Amino acid sequence: METPGLVVHGEAAPFSTALRSLLNNPQYSDVCFVVGQERQEVFAHRCLLACRCNFFQRLLGPKLGSGMPSPVVLSTVPAEAFLAVLEFLYTNSVRLHRHSVAVTFGLGPLQERCIAFIEAHSQEALRTRGFLELSAPALLSLLRSDKLRVDEAELVLAARSWARVGAAVLERPVAEVAAPVVRELRLALLAPAELSALEEQNQREPLIPVEQIVEAWKCHALRRGDAARGAPCRRRRGTLPREHHCFLDLPFK
């Protein structure tokens, strides 16, 4: 039986530094992206992106041919977020900032880190331009979290702002843009006065399906925790206490 060879591990830090030097470096690059509304050029290396991420493997497949292909235009992706994704792909690490929310292109580990970062800095993140530019799947992942440090009333306002921006860009109704994500808003956490105000605003500018608001009112009317368990009414870390929370018997995670 052949004796296994000796495995030699080099230091990770110099390797990561060397790969970081290739980030957005035109030298030896074989693909160029034109990113964001500012049309910023970003240089990269097809083999590295393709082996690290299925999204880029599909995007940069054989159909592009050999040599330097035409620039790949990603006009809806903020340049800062795109560079953060590339940094993670090149070095397996990335430094996130409060003013930036990264677009993850289906990268599970990076997406998990981004969500954890936003959970810890929820109020700051909601005020950023990056939040307004989140894709619907990314926002859906956030709204499903129990760990957001923000009250539900603020989340409703943030979701409305996000939907307004999307409606303006896509030239579609606000309610249509919001439809994939608003089901994760926990309206039963709002006090009756807040729910009434939301209902009035929803009549002027539809955002939330009427039946979802009806379900929230049902939780208030029944005043029974066991009837509310099936409704999206778990408290988040940032949920402010309200008088009716005691009869909803809400769990807290």
TrEMBL record:
Coiled coil (UniProt feature): none
Highest taxon of source: Eukaryota
Pfam families xref list: BTB (PF00651)
Gene3D superfamilies in the record: 1.25.40.420, Potassium Channel Kv1.1, Chain A (3.30.710.10)
Domain BTB positions: 29-98
PROSITE patterns (UniProt xref): BTB (PS50097)
Alphabetized InterPro entries for the sequence: BACK (IPR011705), BTB/POZ_dom (IPR000210), BTBD19 (IPR042846), SKP1/BTB/POZ_sf (IPR011333)
SMART domains attached to this UniProt entry: BACK (SM00875), BTB (SM00225)
Stored SUPFAM superfamilies: POZ domain
Name of the protein: BTB domain containing 19
Organism from which the protein derives: Felis catus (Cat)
